[in-house]
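Lab notebook, bench 4. We co-purified these components, and the gel suggests they stay together. Before we commit to crystallization screens, I want a quick structural picture of the whole thing.
Request: model the full complex, all chains together.
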Amino acid sequence: MIRMRHAAEATRPSLVESAYEALKAAIRNNVFAPGYQGSEQEIALQLGMSRTPVHEAIIRLQEEGLVRVLPRRGVVVCALSPEDMREIYEVIVALETAAAALIAEMPADARAPIAAELDAVNAAMEAALARDDLVAWAEADGRFHQLLVARSGNARLARLFGTIMDQSHRARMLTLRLRPRPTVSVEEHRGIVAAIRHGAAEEAHARAKAHRLRARQQLLPLLASLGMRHL
Amino acid sequence: MIRMRHAAEATRPSLVESAYEALKAAIRNNVFAPGYQGSEQEIALQLGMSRTPVHEAIIRLQEEGLVRVLPRRGVVVCALSPEDMREIYEVIVALETAAAALIAEMPADARAPIAAELDAVNAAMEAALARDDLVAWAEADGRFHQLLVARSGNARLARLFGTIMDQSHRARMLTLRLRPRPTVSVEEHRGIVAAIRHGAAEEAHARAKAHRLRARQQLLPLLASLGMRHL
DNA sequence: AAGCCCCAGCTTGCATGGAAGCTGGGGCCG
DNA sequence: CGGCCCCAGCTTCCATGCAAGCTGGGGCTT
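Here is the predicted assembly.
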């Protein structure tokens, strides 16, 4: 047995890490609803650890815009106004269109397998829609967009995209059942993939933008009609 | 004297905050050069505080990609490879072109004062260049780009832009004196402002993109010639 | 002489205690 | 009866102590 002195690559997660993941999941799944206010002590108790790792996890969550800590008062889960959703969509458009263009600018033998991956996910969306399985549809839709940025060859871009999607996850889930059947999405996705496959960067950019703008146009009125500061 | 019970808005900065700012400044100004490895204890001593606030500040810096903490080994200042710089420029292009387009899409009476502000900064750049004051030129150039995203009406976009610019600040400073006299920049900036003033979103987008791509094309070979992992 | 092993020292991870500050409500004063 | 004040309780902030783990070098074995 070789003595591994340098770099144990698969170390067990620290308490900070698990607190971070647990809190993020709780926020995403609405267990901690927006506006929820709690103390680190209380959260630490729930997670079965001391205050320190919870405190440090909350610092990270604050950095990502999911919570805000009010000094000496507690930590609150950030609520999203329609204004926030406008900002978020603008950032999503900026990052995602860039990713689509970057992929389209790759050499053909790099683009092809990526286009195939995207097509596969898109097929899964279509199948879910045929089964009337909206949850599976949303999951596959998320995977499509996540794949798009993950394959852009730009880890920083993918990371920024991830945090902005985390911020808006709740809002998308909320409106999932409210909006009309999303049949256009699959078609628009196909257009994006086609542009990528042909190496048409400008077109990929434009199609990705149009897709997101339409989705946003559908989402914002819904949110506005639901009440201002609610999610 | 009214008793301000709610929300003291101008509270003195916490130790965590000052540690964060001090460390960020030290990294920006190359006091802690990339690859520098130190212990939290040592930094805490230098800043005259305990390990705790330093530890928490480092968590934030790690979240922003400026440092990496190696468990039980210390914290190192991240070095940037040419590959990293490519990623960074791609993100800058994505965010900045979006900002330019957003401003150009505003109503005319909102665009005009912004264009005037941008023109003023641009004039300062030109003046600095006439004086051969490269440092002042770089400072004004940074202000131009920062202003562009700050006036986009999207705080999230501006924040993301700020962190990515923090990551790449050192590299820009390093190459400042190495590259040819930046006379084209002022002209290209004028083009961006003109497109904004006319409300031509597509053109503002394209000009902002071309400007950054040219700058990148100038920067990358310089960095490559300097040595791979150095900054 | 070369290679392995083990240990001393230094590092962060985490727990805990004290301090400072904000909040809300009960009591006091007008 | 109304409004102000003050304080008890809860919160985060920060310091510090202990534990676990990584590193590098000195000494031992072969």
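The two ends of chain B are 54 Å apart (CA to CA). Worth comparing against the SEC data before the next meeting. Residues 3, 14-16, 49-53, 56, 70-73 of chain B lie near DNA strand D (CB under 10 Å from a C1').
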